[in-house]
Amino acid sequence: MSFEVSLTGREQELVDIARAFTAAEITPNAGTWEHERIYPRDTQLAAAAAGLGGVLVPKEDGGEDVSHTGACRIFEELASGCMPFTFSMVVHNNFANSLARNGTAQQKQKFLPDLIACRKIGAFLLTEPGMGSDAQAVSCMARPDGDGWVLDGEKAWISSASHAGVLSIYAQTDPEKGWRGIMCFVIEAERDGVHRVGPYAMAGGHALGTGGFRFEGVRLTRDDVLLEQEAAFKGAMGGIDSARFFVGAMCTGMVNAALTRSLEYVATRPAFGQTVGDFQGIQWMLADVATDIEAMRLLTYSAADTWDKGGNASMAAAHAKKFATRAALTRLTDCMQVMGANGFKIDEVAARHFSSAKMCQFMDGTTEIQNVVIARGLQKQARG
Ligand SMILES: Cc1cc2nc3c(=O)[nH]c(=O)nc-3n(C[C@H](O)[C@H](O)[C@H](O)COP(=O)(O)OP(=O)(O)OC[C@H]3O[C@@H](n4cnc5c(N)ncnc54)[C@H](O)[C@@H]3O)c2cc1C
Q: What domains lie within the chain, and their CATH numbers?
Protein backbone atom coordinates (compact mmCIF):
# COMPACT_ATOMS: atom_id res chain seq x y z
CA MET A 1 0.00 0.00 0.00
CA SER A 2 1.52 3.36 -0.94
CA PHE A 3 -0.88 5.47 1.14
CA GLU A 4 -0.78 4.54 4.84
CA VAL A 5 -2.85 6.03 7.62
CA SER A 6 -1.43 6.74 11.05
CA LEU A 7 -2.61 4.33 13.72
CA THR A 8 -1.88 3.71 17.39
CA GLY A 9 0.18 0.66 18.33
CA ARG A 10 -2.92 -1.31 19.37
CA GLU A 11 -4.80 -0.30 16.21
CA GLN A 12 -1.89 -1.52 14.05
CA GLU A 13 -1.82 -4.75 16.08
CA LEU A 14 -5.53 -5.29 15.36
CA VAL A 15 -4.96 -4.59 11.63
CA ASP A 16 -2.19 -7.23 11.65
CA ILE A 17 -4.53 -9.64 13.46
CA ALA A 18 -7.26 -8.94 10.87
CA ARG A 19 -4.79 -9.58 8.01
CA ALA A 20 -3.65 -12.90 9.47
CA PHE A 21 -7.23 -13.89 10.32
CA THR A 22 -8.30 -13.15 6.74
CA ALA A 23 -5.53 -15.33 5.31
CA ALA A 24 -6.19 -18.22 7.68
CA GLU A 25 -9.96 -18.19 8.23
CA ILE A 26 -11.72 -16.10 5.59
CA THR A 27 -10.09 -16.31 2.15
CA PRO A 28 -9.84 -20.15 2.12
CA ASN A 29 -13.54 -20.51 3.07
CA ALA A 30 -15.28 -17.63 1.30
CA GLY A 31 -15.99 -19.65 -1.87
CA THR A 32 -17.65 -22.45 0.12
CA TRP A 33 -19.76 -19.95 2.08
CA GLU A 34 -21.03 -18.57 -1.23
CA HIS A 35 -21.58 -21.92 -3.01
CA GLU A 36 -23.35 -23.48 -0.02
CA ARG A 37 -25.02 -20.29 1.21
CA ILE A 38 -23.45 -20.58 4.64
CA TYR A 39 -23.68 -17.83 7.26
CA PRO A 40 -20.29 -18.34 8.99
CA ARG A 41 -21.27 -18.28 12.70
CA ASP A 42 -18.13 -20.13 13.83
CA THR A 43 -15.90 -17.64 12.00
CA GLN A 44 -17.66 -14.74 13.74
CA LEU A 45 -16.94 -16.38 17.11
CA ALA A 46 -13.31 -16.87 16.08
CA ALA A 47 -13.09 -13.23 14.96
CA ALA A 48 -14.38 -12.12 18.37
CA ALA A 49 -11.84 -14.38 20.09
CA ALA A 50 -9.17 -12.59 18.04
CA GLY A 51 -10.40 -9.21 19.37
CA LEU A 52 -12.61 -8.10 16.46
CA GLY A 53 -16.08 -8.31 18.10
CA GLY A 54 -16.21 -4.87 19.74
CA VAL A 55 -13.54 -2.76 18.08
CA LEU A 56 -15.43 0.55 18.42
CA VAL A 57 -16.80 -0.10 21.92
CA PRO A 58 -15.16 2.00 24.68
CA LYS A 59 -12.53 0.23 26.80
CA GLU A 60 -14.53 0.64 30.03
CA ASP A 61 -17.32 -1.38 28.38
CA GLY A 62 -14.96 -4.19 27.35
CA GLY A 63 -14.16 -3.08 23.79
CA GLU A 64 -11.06 -1.90 21.92
CA ASP A 65 -12.14 1.74 21.44
CA VAL A 66 -10.28 2.07 18.11
CA SER A 67 -10.73 5.17 15.97
CA HIS A 68 -12.98 4.97 12.90
CA THR A 69 -9.80 5.20 10.82
CA GLY A 70 -8.46 2.12 12.62
CA ALA A 71 -11.78 0.31 12.11
CA CYS A 72 -11.63 1.13 8.37
CA ARG A 73 -8.21 -0.52 8.12
CA ILE A 74 -9.51 -3.62 9.93
CA PHE A 75 -12.58 -3.88 7.67
CA GLU A 76 -10.43 -3.29 4.56
CA GLU A 77 -8.31 -6.31 5.50
CA LEU A 78 -11.28 -8.58 6.26
CA ALA A 79 -13.14 -7.60 3.08
CA SER A 80 -10.17 -8.53 0.90
CA GLY A 81 -11.24 -12.11 1.73
CA CYS A 82 -15.04 -11.85 1.93
CA MET A 83 -17.08 -8.68 1.90
CA PRO A 84 -20.41 -10.21 3.05
CA PHE A 85 -18.75 -11.74 6.14
CA THR A 86 -17.06 -8.39 6.79
CA PHE A 87 -20.30 -6.46 6.44
CA SER A 88 -21.93 -8.70 9.06
CA MET A 89 -19.05 -7.69 11.37
CA VAL A 90 -19.37 -3.99 10.40
CA VAL A 91 -23.08 -3.89 11.25
CA HIS A 92 -22.44 -5.89 14.42
CA ASN A 93 -19.59 -3.62 15.56
CA ASN A 94 -21.65 -0.48 14.83
CA PHE A 95 -24.54 -1.99 16.78
CA ALA A 96 -22.38 -2.81 19.82
CA ASN A 97 -20.87 0.68 19.72
CA SER A 98 -24.29 2.33 19.56
CA LEU A 99 -25.53 0.22 22.48
CA ALA A 100 -22.43 1.06 24.54
CA ARG A 101 -22.85 4.79 23.92
CA ASN A 102 -26.67 5.10 24.04
CA GLY A 103 -27.87 2.16 26.10
CA THR A 104 -28.88 2.16 29.76
CA ALA A 105 -26.67 0.42 32.33
CA GLN A 106 -29.18 -2.43 32.36
CA GLN A 107 -29.17 -2.83 28.55
CA LYS A 108 -25.37 -2.76 28.45
CA GLN A 109 -25.13 -5.40 31.16
CA LYS A 110 -27.73 -7.56 29.42
CA PHE A 111 -26.34 -7.45 25.89
CA LEU A 112 -22.78 -6.12 25.61
CA PRO A 113 -20.73 -9.11 26.86
CA ASP A 114 -22.53 -11.45 24.43
CA LEU A 115 -22.16 -8.95 21.58
CA ILE A 116 -18.44 -8.36 22.10
CA ALA A 117 -17.86 -12.13 22.20
CA CYS A 118 -20.15 -12.56 19.13
CA ARG A 119 -22.19 -15.09 21.11
CA LYS A 120 -25.06 -12.93 19.88
CA ILE A 121 -24.98 -10.96 16.62
CA GLY A 122 -26.56 -7.52 16.37
CA ALA A 123 -28.83 -6.36 13.54
CA PHE A 124 -29.99 -2.86 12.50
CA LEU A 125 -33.64 -2.83 11.41
CA LEU A 126 -34.62 0.30 9.49
CA THR A 127 -35.53 -0.75 5.91
CA GLU A 128 -39.00 -2.16 5.20
CA PRO A 129 -40.58 -4.01 2.25
CA GLY A 130 -42.21 -0.73 1.12
CA MET A 131 -39.46 1.72 2.13
CA GLY A 132 -35.69 2.02 1.70
CA SER A 133 -34.16 5.36 0.65
CA ASP A 134 -37.01 7.39 2.17
CA ALA A 135 -36.13 6.21 5.67
CA GLN A 136 -38.44 8.58 7.50
CA ALA A 137 -41.44 6.77 5.98
CA VAL A 138 -41.18 4.00 8.60
CA SER A 139 -44.48 2.11 8.74
CA CYS A 140 -43.68 -0.48 11.43
CA MET A 141 -45.99 0.71 14.21
CA ALA A 142 -45.20 0.66 17.92
CA ARG A 143 -48.64 1.57 19.28
CA PRO A 144 -48.63 2.97 22.84
CA ASP A 145 -50.31 0.47 25.16
CA GLY A 146 -50.38 0.98 28.93
CA ASP A 147 -46.79 1.46 30.14
CA GLY A 148 -45.31 0.24 26.88
CA TRP A 149 -46.01 -0.37 23.18
CA VAL A 150 -47.24 -3.13 20.87
CA LEU A 151 -45.16 -3.61 17.71
CA ASP A 152 -46.58 -4.73 14.34
CA GLY A 153 -45.12 -4.59 10.85
CA GLU A 154 -42.26 -5.89 8.75
CA LYS A 155 -38.58 -5.10 8.15
CA ALA A 156 -36.72 -6.11 4.97
CA TRP A 157 -33.16 -6.31 3.69
CA ILE A 158 -31.64 -6.79 7.12
CA SER A 159 -28.01 -7.96 7.30
CA SER A 160 -27.60 -11.06 9.50
CA ALA A 161 -31.39 -11.52 9.73
CA SER A 162 -30.89 -15.28 9.50
CA HIS A 163 -28.91 -15.51 12.76
CA ALA A 164 -29.05 -12.18 14.64
CA GLY A 165 -29.73 -12.52 18.35
CA VAL A 166 -30.25 -8.83 19.26
CA LEU A 167 -32.26 -6.36 17.19
CA SER A 168 -32.36 -2.56 17.10
CA ILE A 169 -35.77 -1.78 15.61
CA TYR A 170 -36.87 1.60 14.26
CA ALA A 171 -40.64 1.96 14.64
CA GLN A 172 -43.17 4.76 14.38
CA THR A 173 -44.81 5.61 17.71
CA ASP A 174 -46.71 8.76 16.67
CA PRO A 175 -47.39 9.12 12.91
CA GLU A 176 -48.52 12.74 13.26
CA LYS A 177 -44.98 13.68 14.27
CA GLY A 178 -43.41 12.19 11.11
CA TRP A 179 -39.71 11.33 11.56
CA ARG A 180 -39.82 12.83 15.06
CA GLY A 181 -42.23 10.08 16.12
CA ILE A 182 -39.79 7.27 15.28
CA MET A 183 -38.20 5.47 18.26
CA CYS A 184 -35.53 2.79 18.43
CA PHE A 185 -36.04 -0.31 20.57
CA VAL A 186 -33.47 -3.00 21.39
CA ILE A 187 -34.78 -6.50 22.03
CA GLU A 188 -33.69 -10.12 21.80
CA ALA A 189 -34.72 -11.82 18.54
CA GLU A 190 -36.44 -14.67 20.35
CA ARG A 191 -39.23 -12.57 21.85
CA ASP A 192 -42.85 -13.71 21.28
CA GLY A 193 -44.27 -12.35 18.03
CA VAL A 194 -40.89 -11.91 16.26
CA HIS A 195 -40.65 -14.01 13.07
CA ARG A 196 -37.68 -14.26 10.71
CA VAL A 197 -38.21 -13.91 6.94
CA GLY A 198 -35.78 -15.47 4.43
CA PRO A 199 -32.83 -15.52 4.06
CA TYR A 200 -33.11 -14.13 0.54
CA ALA A 201 -31.62 -15.75 -2.55
CA MET A 202 -29.54 -12.97 -4.15
CA ALA A 203 -27.06 -12.49 -7.01
CA GLY A 204 -24.30 -13.21 -4.44
CA GLY A 205 -23.14 -12.32 -0.94
CA HIS A 206 -25.00 -15.09 0.87
CA ALA A 207 -22.56 -15.14 3.81
CA LEU A 208 -24.40 -12.02 4.99
CA GLY A 209 -27.60 -13.94 5.83
CA THR A 210 -29.77 -11.11 4.47
CA GLY A 211 -33.50 -11.36 5.15
CA GLY A 212 -36.30 -9.73 7.10
CA PHE A 213 -38.42 -9.81 10.25
CA ARG A 214 -42.17 -9.77 10.74
CA PHE A 215 -43.61 -8.47 14.02
CA GLU A 216 -47.00 -9.58 15.25
CA GLY A 217 -48.18 -8.01 18.51
CA VAL A 218 -44.67 -7.82 20.03
CA ARG A 219 -44.87 -6.28 23.53
CA LEU A 220 -42.26 -3.59 24.20
CA THR A 221 -41.54 -2.01 27.58
CA ARG A 222 -39.65 1.11 28.70
CA ASP A 223 -36.62 -1.14 29.34
CA ASP A 224 -36.49 -1.84 25.58
CA VAL A 225 -36.11 1.82 24.53
CA LEU A 226 -32.65 2.54 23.08
CA LEU A 227 -33.37 5.94 21.49
CA GLU A 228 -36.35 8.19 22.20
CA GLN A 229 -38.49 10.15 19.71
CA GLU A 230 -36.43 12.59 17.62
CA ALA A 231 -33.11 11.12 18.85
CA ALA A 232 -33.80 7.80 17.10
CA PHE A 233 -33.97 9.09 13.52
CA LYS A 234 -31.11 11.55 14.08
CA GLY A 235 -29.05 8.68 15.52
CA ALA A 236 -29.76 6.41 12.57
CA MET A 237 -28.78 9.10 10.06
CA GLY A 238 -25.68 10.14 12.03
CA GLY A 239 -24.42 6.55 12.15
CA ILE A 240 -24.92 6.14 8.42
CA ASP A 241 -22.00 8.48 7.61
CA SER A 242 -19.49 6.15 9.24
CA ALA A 243 -21.18 3.10 7.71
CA ARG A 244 -20.61 4.77 4.31
CA PHE A 245 -16.85 5.15 4.65
CA PHE A 246 -16.68 1.60 6.04
CA VAL A 247 -18.18 0.54 2.68
CA GLY A 248 -15.42 2.55 0.97
CA ALA A 249 -12.83 0.64 3.01
CA MET A 250 -14.38 -2.72 2.10
CA CYS A 251 -14.37 -1.82 -1.61
CA THR A 252 -10.70 -0.84 -1.34
CA GLY A 253 -9.89 -4.22 0.21
CA MET A 254 -11.78 -6.15 -2.46
CA VAL A 255 -10.17 -4.40 -5.43
CA ASN A 256 -6.71 -4.57 -3.91
CA ALA A 257 -7.04 -8.34 -3.46
CA ALA A 258 -8.21 -8.68 -7.07
CA LEU A 259 -5.29 -6.57 -8.37
CA THR A 260 -2.77 -8.70 -6.47
CA ARG A 261 -4.23 -11.88 -7.98
CA SER A 262 -4.39 -10.42 -11.51
CA LEU A 263 -0.77 -9.26 -11.38
CA GLU A 264 0.29 -12.76 -10.30
CA TYR A 265 -1.77 -14.38 -13.10
CA VAL A 266 -0.67 -12.18 -16.01
CA ALA A 267 3.00 -12.62 -15.05
CA THR A 268 2.84 -16.33 -15.93
CA ARG A 269 0.06 -16.71 -18.53
CA PRO A 270 1.67 -17.27 -21.97
CA ALA A 271 0.34 -15.75 -25.22
CA PHE A 272 2.05 -15.01 -28.56
CA GLY A 273 5.50 -16.02 -27.26
CA GLN A 274 5.46 -13.81 -24.18
CA THR A 275 3.28 -13.41 -21.09
CA VAL A 276 -0.04 -11.61 -21.06
CA GLY A 277 1.49 -9.18 -18.58
CA ASP A 278 4.03 -8.11 -21.24
CA PHE A 279 1.31 -6.45 -23.34
CA GLN A 280 1.09 -2.74 -22.72
CA GLY A 281 -2.73 -2.85 -23.05
CA ILE A 282 -2.89 -5.22 -20.07
CA GLN A 283 -0.34 -3.21 -18.08
CA TRP A 284 -2.33 -0.02 -18.59
CA MET A 285 -5.59 -1.65 -17.55
CA LEU A 286 -3.97 -2.71 -14.28
CA ALA A 287 -2.38 0.71 -13.88
CA ASP A 288 -5.88 2.22 -14.01
CA VAL A 289 -7.02 -0.26 -11.34
CA ALA A 290 -4.12 0.86 -9.13
CA THR A 291 -4.96 4.56 -9.66
CA ASP A 292 -8.55 4.00 -8.56
CA ILE A 293 -7.40 2.06 -5.49
CA GLU A 294 -5.30 5.09 -4.50
CA ALA A 295 -8.29 7.39 -5.02
CA MET A 296 -10.66 5.07 -3.09
CA ARG A 297 -8.20 4.99 -0.19
CA LEU A 298 -7.70 8.74 -0.09
CA LEU A 299 -11.43 9.51 -0.16
CA THR A 300 -12.25 6.82 2.40
CA TYR A 301 -9.55 7.69 4.90
CA SER A 302 -10.07 11.41 4.49
CA ALA A 303 -13.75 10.89 5.48
CA ALA A 304 -12.77 8.67 8.43
CA ASP A 305 -10.20 11.25 9.56
CA THR A 306 -12.80 14.04 9.40
CA TRP A 307 -15.11 11.89 11.55
CA ASP A 308 -12.36 11.06 14.07
CA LYS A 309 -11.53 14.77 14.42
CA GLY A 310 -15.19 15.52 15.24
CA GLY A 311 -15.96 17.24 11.92
CA ASN A 312 -19.08 16.86 9.76
CA ALA A 313 -18.20 13.87 7.56
CA SER A 314 -21.48 13.64 5.60
CA MET A 315 -20.25 14.95 2.26
CA ALA A 316 -16.84 13.28 2.54
CA ALA A 317 -18.50 9.94 3.37
CA ALA A 318 -20.92 10.32 0.43
CA HIS A 319 -18.04 11.10 -1.97
CA ALA A 320 -16.10 8.09 -0.64
CA LYS A 321 -19.00 5.67 -0.92
CA LYS A 322 -20.11 6.85 -4.36
CA PHE A 323 -16.63 6.74 -5.85
CA ALA A 324 -15.45 3.55 -4.16
CA THR A 325 -18.52 1.47 -5.07
CA ARG A 326 -18.49 2.66 -8.69
CA ALA A 327 -14.74 2.10 -9.00
CA ALA A 328 -14.98 -1.34 -7.39
CA LEU A 329 -17.52 -2.53 -9.92
CA THR A 330 -15.54 -1.22 -12.92
CA ARG A 331 -12.10 -2.26 -11.70
CA LEU A 332 -13.15 -5.75 -10.62
CA THR A 333 -14.33 -6.36 -14.18
CA ASP A 334 -10.93 -5.14 -15.42
CA CYS A 335 -9.19 -7.57 -13.07
CA MET A 336 -11.37 -10.35 -14.52
CA GLN A 337 -10.74 -9.18 -18.10
CA VAL A 338 -6.94 -9.38 -17.94
CA MET A 339 -7.28 -13.03 -16.84
CA GLY A 340 -9.43 -13.95 -19.82
CA ALA A 341 -12.05 -16.66 -19.29
CA ASN A 342 -10.29 -17.92 -16.17
CA GLY A 343 -11.07 -14.58 -14.51
CA PHE A 344 -14.77 -15.37 -14.89
CA LYS A 345 -14.59 -18.48 -12.68
CA ILE A 346 -16.48 -17.87 -9.44
CA ASP A 347 -13.57 -19.22 -7.38
CA GLU A 348 -11.39 -16.38 -8.65
CA VAL A 349 -11.27 -13.49 -6.23
CA ALA A 350 -12.41 -10.76 -8.65
CA ALA A 351 -15.40 -12.81 -9.83
CA ARG A 352 -16.45 -13.58 -6.26
CA HIS A 353 -16.11 -9.95 -5.16
CA PHE A 354 -18.02 -8.70 -8.22
CA SER A 355 -21.53 -9.31 -6.84
CA SER A 356 -20.40 -7.94 -3.46
CA ALA A 357 -19.35 -4.70 -5.15
CA LYS A 358 -22.83 -4.38 -6.66
CA MET A 359 -24.35 -5.08 -3.24
CA CYS A 360 -22.31 -2.18 -1.88
CA GLN A 361 -24.18 0.20 -4.20
CA PHE A 362 -27.43 -0.42 -2.27
CA MET A 363 -26.47 -0.73 1.39
CA ASP A 364 -26.22 2.37 3.61
CA GLY A 365 -27.80 4.50 0.89
CA THR A 366 -27.70 3.97 -2.87
CA THR A 367 -25.34 5.81 -5.22
CA GLU A 368 -28.20 8.20 -6.07
CA ILE A 369 -28.74 9.01 -2.39
CA GLN A 370 -25.01 9.85 -2.08
CA ASN A 371 -25.61 12.34 -4.90
CA VAL A 372 -28.59 13.77 -3.02
CA VAL A 373 -26.33 14.32 0.03
CA ILE A 374 -23.55 15.86 -2.08
CA ALA A 375 -25.94 18.11 -4.05
CA ARG A 376 -27.57 19.37 -0.82
CA GLY A 377 -24.13 20.07 0.61
CA LEU A 378 -23.10 22.01 -2.50
CA GLN A 379 -26.28 24.12 -2.38
CA LYS A 380 -25.70 24.87 1.30
CA GLN A 381 -22.10 25.91 0.57
CA ALA A 382 -23.28 28.13 -2.31
CA ARG A 383 -25.77 29.88 -0.02
CA GLY A 384 -22.87 30.58 2.33
C1 LIG B 1 -27.15 -6.72 1.01
C2 LIG B 1 -27.92 -5.62 1.67
C3 LIG B 1 -27.86 -5.48 3.05
C4 LIG B 1 -28.63 -4.50 3.69
N5 LIG B 1 -28.59 -4.41 5.06
C6 LIG B 1 -29.45 -3.55 5.69
C7 LIG B 1 -29.55 -3.55 7.14
O8 LIG B 1 -28.82 -4.26 7.82
N9 LIG B 1 -30.49 -2.73 7.70
C10 LIG B 1 -31.30 -1.93 6.98
O11 LIG B 1 -32.12 -1.23 7.58
N12 LIG B 1 -31.22 -1.90 5.61
C13 LIG B 1 -30.33 -2.68 4.97
N14 LIG B 1 -30.25 -2.70 3.57
C15 LIG B 1 -31.19 -1.88 2.81
C16 LIG B 1 -30.56 -0.67 2.14
O17 LIG B 1 -30.27 0.30 3.11
C18 LIG B 1 -31.59 -0.20 1.07
O19 LIG B 1 -31.52 -1.16 0.03
C20 LIG B 1 -31.27 1.18 0.55
O21 LIG B 1 -31.53 2.14 1.54
C22 LIG B 1 -32.09 1.51 -0.70
O23 LIG B 1 -33.44 1.30 -0.50
P24 LIG B 1 -34.26 0.40 -1.57
O25 LIG B 1 -33.44 -0.78 -1.90
O26 LIG B 1 -35.61 0.17 -0.98
O27 LIG B 1 -34.40 1.29 -2.86
P28 LIG B 1 -35.53 2.44 -3.18
O29 LIG B 1 -35.54 3.41 -2.08
O30 LIG B 1 -36.80 1.76 -3.52
O31 LIG B 1 -34.91 3.06 -4.46
C32 LIG B 1 -35.09 2.52 -5.77
C33 LIG B 1 -34.24 3.34 -6.75
O34 LIG B 1 -34.66 4.71 -6.70
C35 LIG B 1 -33.54 5.54 -6.42
N36 LIG B 1 -33.95 6.69 -5.60
C37 LIG B 1 -34.65 6.67 -4.43
N38 LIG B 1 -34.78 7.91 -3.95
C39 LIG B 1 -34.16 8.75 -4.82
C40 LIG B 1 -33.93 10.15 -4.88
N41 LIG B 1 -34.35 10.98 -3.90
N42 LIG B 1 -33.26 10.67 -5.94
C43 LIG B 1 -32.80 9.85 -6.93
N44 LIG B 1 -32.97 8.50 -6.92
C45 LIG B 1 -33.63 7.96 -5.88
C46 LIG B 1 -32.58 4.65 -5.65
O47 LIG B 1 -31.25 5.13 -5.70
C48 LIG B 1 -32.75 3.34 -6.39
O49 LIG B 1 -31.97 3.33 -7.54
C50 LIG B 1 -29.43 -3.64 2.91
C51 LIG B 1 -29.45 -3.76 1.52
C52 LIG B 1 -28.70 -4.72 0.90
C53 LIG B 1 -28.73 -4.85 -0.61
A: 9-120 (1.10.540.10), 124-229 (2.40.110.10), 233-383 (1.20.140.10)
